[in-house]
Protein: Transcriptional regulator PpsR
Organism: Rhodovulum bhavnagarense
Amino acid sequence: MTSRGTKYWSSGAIPLIAPEMLGEIIATAADLSLVITREGKILSALVNRTHRAFGQLDHWEGQNIRDILTEDSRPKLEARLELLAGGGDSDRLVELNHAEGEGWDFPVRYSFHRIGPDESVLLMLGRDLRPIAEMQMQLIEAQMALERDYETQREYDTRYRVLTEATRDAFLFVGAKSGRVVDANPVACELLGLGRNDLIGSSLVQEFEGRRRAEFMEALTRAATDDEARPLDLETRRTGQAVRLTAIAFRAAGERLVLCRLDPVATAVQTDDEMTGGLKAMYHHGVDAIVFTDRDGVILSANESFLGLTDSSQLSTVKGRSLGDFLVRGSVDLRVLVENATRTGQMRMFATKLSGEYGAQVSVEISATYLADQASPAIVFIIRDASRMEVVRKPGVAVSDDAMRSVMELVGSATLKDIVAETTDVVEKMCIETAVELTRNNRVAAAEMLGLSRQSLYVKLRKYGLLARDGADH
């Protein structure tokens, strides 16, 4: 580029630029440009058009730049102004923090340039440092998060090591695909007769007599995934100890592992004795439905008879569901059964109806037993089909001798209509008393069981003098 024959760029000079163009060039070259006097008065504030984070800063013009800086930035500005006034170097960049109002401040990196005929005016070209500051903050937060995760991992690792060292059970972790030992506790190492460093990484099958790898891995996988599978009876190769292996499959960090617990046969629970075998046979082939639930009534296991009563195709369709889903009165019946079983240990001959998967209903009698003396307390329900008995049962409701005697005394002294009404009252009173007793005076549940509204139940309780006898409403 030339002007009047002079090469401005090669000689280091700048060609003459119109004032309006110069302002646009300066505003575009920096995120924020300030023109100030030696005393710090702002003559002009230019914001880059493509950088809208600052907004409009026209109100800065006429203010002293010190008034829009934070306390820690003012000494840096004073030092730079003194340096420039003494003719010092102006090439170094200075980071200043602007503050305007409460809670709004931002860092800017400035370069200072003397302009004007007598260099009495300073041009400050600034670069917004907020993106860099935000990135630095994100890096710091990420580093702190990593440190917290590391400390948490160390804590869990310490707990795991203490648990494995303190437990008396022999267990080890095995890769589901490789069949190699991932970790083992000292009790398992002693039982297998091998040091921990030698055991980790070795194939588990080689630690037992008379086992082939493919056959052993297939049996191990079946024992870990099938709830009905039996534990594996094995003999250790080095110590000659008969052990029983119980396996549990799980996944950790995307890797499938198997937790193997080894119980010496001398101390293991004998599950194949005559009584246990008979109980298993009764459970699987008995005519009555047997259901195991937790304390909330969620089904843990059920036999084939229960699947037949509910028209369920397989165990997986009922496992994990509430037993109340299969009772006609739902949670009302389940609450009565569970509360009475957990309170007294058992409940006998509770009459209700069972609802199948497709809506079919069958009359049943349910007995419940609470098993509290085990690691995970459970409730066992024996459900018997009572639909055939309804055919041979005599119609009507059994009443007490005193109630029947009082009704019979009315014959001859009252009309048949009055006698029937009296009999209805006797039966109604007995039903209400039974419902209140079964629900342990929970009148909301009793009303649901009887098919009455809560207000109707209160009316009948007051009618038969049962309201004052019962305790507080639940």
